[in-house]
UniProtKB/TrEMBL annotation:
Subcellular localization, as worded in the UniProt entry: Membrane
Superkingdom classification of source: Eukaryota
Protein name, per record: Band 7 domain-containing protein
GO cellular component: plasma membrane
Primary location class: membrane
Band domain sequence ranges: 59-218
Pfam families linked: Band_7 (PF01145)
Naturally occurring in which organism (per UniProt): Meganyctiphanes norvegica (Northern krill)
Positions of transmembrane segments: 39-61
Family named by the database record: Belongs to the band 7/mec-2 family.
Keywords in alphabetical order: Membrane, Transmembrane, Transmembrane helix
Record Gene3D superfamilies: 6.10.250.2090, Band 7 domain
Length: 289
């Protein structure tokens, strides 16, 4: 029996003077040739189906949903052509075997990873990844379990990328880190027929001692800013008060009006207070002495 299998067709694209190989999974198929045993077993199977008709119809026709595809193997070889589906397709029960592949987008929660950052801080980071099968044949033939392999690769990539970042970069540049992870995982899973659509960091958990230290640092920074703002306000107020005093000192009538306005304010707010007005001229003469 001829057990030859065709290799993946590699198309070479020339970009910026460099040859970039890309795999075309639509051409993954077995050789057209088959041995005598293949033809004999196929003939016997068709003959058996004919003799047991219509009972064998329950085993010959299969259906797949709109979001599924069926990868068919005939006598261990990948059947020529594209995956079957959606809808109804024909199988030879004795020699055909099919594997259904779901094409919908799958969300996967990356378990929390204990990571030592570049500045020697231990943090626990978890993420979520969205991926889908872009080539059912590659997902079945090129990797044993594409879901497990993709999840393990996501965990390893998360540790590798965050290990090169400081704590401040992890907390502030989540979007950039997610895009880097998405590109790295998508490139690695491309031979498996997996397309990674999106990666997001869910949560970054810090040790309790570090949280308290960061909270104290933030509180001290806010208090320092508040004191600076208050000092600037007092400085501006003192300058305005000095300018007002200079203007009032140039006009005795303005000083008299200010004195009467102060008396009016006190009498309005402090109703139980008895005020004995003192002539401003007397105060002026005393101030000169």
């Amino acid at each position: 029996m001829d057990n030859r299998y065709s290799d993946n067709v590699v198309e070479v694209e020339k970009k910026s003077g460099h040859d970039t190989p890309t795999c075309n999974y639509d051409h993954i198929s077995s050789d057209d040739g088959g041995g005598f045993c293949d033809y004999f077993l196929t003939f016997v199977s068709i003959l058996f189906i004919s003799f047991t008709f219509p009972l064998t119809l329950w085993f010959c026709f299969k259906t797949v949903q709109e979001y599924e595809r069926a990868v068919i193997f005939r006598l261990g070889r990948l059947k020529k052509g594209k995956p079957s589906g959606p809808g109804l397709f024909f199988l030879i029960p004795c020699i055909d075997d099919c594997t259904k592949v779901d094409l919908r987008t799958v969300s996967f929660d990356v378990p929390p990873q204990e990571i030592l950052t570049k500045d020697s801080v231990t943090v626990a980071v978890d993420a979520v990844m969205y991926y889908r099968v872009s080539s059912p044949m590659a997902a079945v033939c090129n990797v044993a379990n594409y879901m497990t392999s993709t999840s393990l690769l996501a965990q390893t990539t998360l540790r590798n990328i965050l290990g090169t970042k400081t704590l401040a970069e992890i907390l502030s540049d989540r979007e950039t880190i997610a895009q880097t992870m998405q590109a790295s995982i998508d490139e690695a899973t491309d031979p498996w027929g997996i397309c990674v659509e999106r990666v997001e960091l869910k949560d970054v958990r810090l040790p309790q001692q570090l949280q308290r230290a960061m909270a104290a640092e933030a509180e001290a920074s806010r208090e320092a800013r508040a004191k600076v703002i208050a000092a600037e306000g007092e400085q501006k107020a003192s300058r305005a008060l000095k300018e007002a005093a200079d203007v009032i000192s140039e006009s005795p009538a303005a000083l008299q009006l200010r004195y009467l306005q102060t008396l009016s304010t006190i009498s309005a707010e402090k109703n139980s207070t008895i005020i004995f007005p003192l002539p401003i001229d007397l105060l002026a003469s005393m101030m000169k002495k």
